[in-house]
Amino acid sequence: MIRQIFLILVFCLSLIAPSHAAWVWTPESGKFINPKNAVKETPKDQLAFAVDLYTAKDYKKATDEFQKLLKTYPRAREAADAQFYLALILEDQGQLNPAFKSYQVVIDKYPFSERTAEVVKRQYDIGNMLLEGKGKRNKIVNAMVGGDYDVVDVFRAVIKNAPYGEYAAPSQYKIGLYLLQKELYQEARDEFEKTRNDYPDSEWAKAAKFQIALSDAKRSSAAQYNQKVTATALKEFQDFVKKFPDADLSVEAKEKINDLREKEAENQFLIAQFYEKQKQYAPAKVYYTAIVEKYSETVWARKAIKALSRLEGK
Predict the structure, then answer these.
(1) Do the domain assignments include residue 242?
(2) Distances in Å between the alpha carbon of 207 and those of 11, 93, 102, 250?
(3) Residue 175, Cβ neighbours under 10 Å: how many?
(4) How many domains is the chain partitioned into structurally?
(5) 5 and 113 in a common domain
(6) Looking at residue 188, what is its pLDDT?
(7) Are residues 94 and 120 in the same domain?
(8) What is the pLDDT of residues 68-86, one digit of tens each?
(9) Which of 79, 262, 289, 312: CA 20 to 30 A from 237?
(10) pLDDT of residue 104
(11) In terms of residue numbers, what domain contains 104?
(12) Which of 187-191's residues contact partners 24+ apart within 8 Å by CB, and which partners?
């Protein structure tokens, strides 16, 4: 009786329109399935099938097949590879922030995967691309969801995922660079200081010392203000040149020293002018003279000499 029912059912299905002919009976599962949604018999075969699609750049089908692997074989060793390829597809398509998050799933869900080192490197590369302005969303998307991607989060993840790895020190340094670009000078200085403290033996510690001085120099933006910060920045640049005289950055450091001395001299000149306008000629002469003696190489020294000539007899 059961056999007769089965044969009748098979006959009826054979009469169904071609659009439904994809469904077939599988004795192993005891039910009808659509081969379109089927997976390979082993996770290894499923991964190879999906990778072939990825290699052919059929990203849509490849994504479907990798997701099938994750759903059907969640505990298989190949699951980590499937998640990695899903992130790789997003990166290939320029979706950097989604790719970063997808790579992070590999770290969080498959911590013992052989892909870990490669994931960290790719996250670091994504951080660099975002730092350089690549992968940014268009104006319409920005208006809807707000702002650029947070580069800081990407580099912090790299540090957290491999705190003693080769990308930890440069990631910490580049957090400072990003904040410096955003004109968050104190915050940038703190991150560069952390680079020096956490990775003192790395090449990035030397560069961080220069950037600390640069951050302070930028903080003293107005000549008549933040003179303590200006003096601090000047000393930091001088220390850098003294400690690393042959470094490429020492050339720029020397230029910054000249700029800061010009700024200090300008501030002294403004003070002298203030006293002169108040007809307090004695202190005005003291400041003008100090500029000539201490900042003789600056343009303000020449202006101070003219001012002293003007004040003779007063």
Answers:
(1) no
(2) 78, 34, 32, 10
(3) 27
(4) 2
(5) no
(6) 96
(7) yes
(8) 999 999 999 999 999 999 9
(9) 289
(10) 97
(11) 41-166
(12) 188/215, 189/215, 189/216, 189/219
Residue 287 placed within a domain? no
What Å distances lie between residue 144 and 85, 93, 137, 147, 148, CA to CA? 29, 21, 10, 9, 12
Degrees, nearest 5: CA angle 142-190-202: 105
pLDDT band at 257 (very low <50, low <70, confident <90, very high): confident
- CA gap 68, 58 in Å, rounded: 16
Tokens standing for residue 42: 């082993």
CB distance 172 to 198 below 8 Å: yes
CA distance 193 to 195: 5
Query: Of 119, 143, 166, at which residue does a domain stop?
Result: 166
- Answer yes or no: do 147 and 78 share one domain: yes
Model pLDDT, residue 279 = 87
Where is the domain boundary, 127, 149, 166?
Answer: 166
Cβ(136)–Cβ(127) under 8 Å? no
- What is the distance between the alpha carbons of residues 180 and 198, in angstroms, rounded to a whole number? 19
DSSP string, 258-276: HHHHHHHHHHHHHHHHHHH
How would you class 290 by CB atoms within 10 Å of its CB: exposed for 0-12, middle for 13-18, buried for 19 or more? Answer: middle
Ranges of H-type helices in 73-202: 78-92, 96-109, 116-131, 139-145, 151-161, 168-181, 185-198
Token pair 């730092």: residue: 131
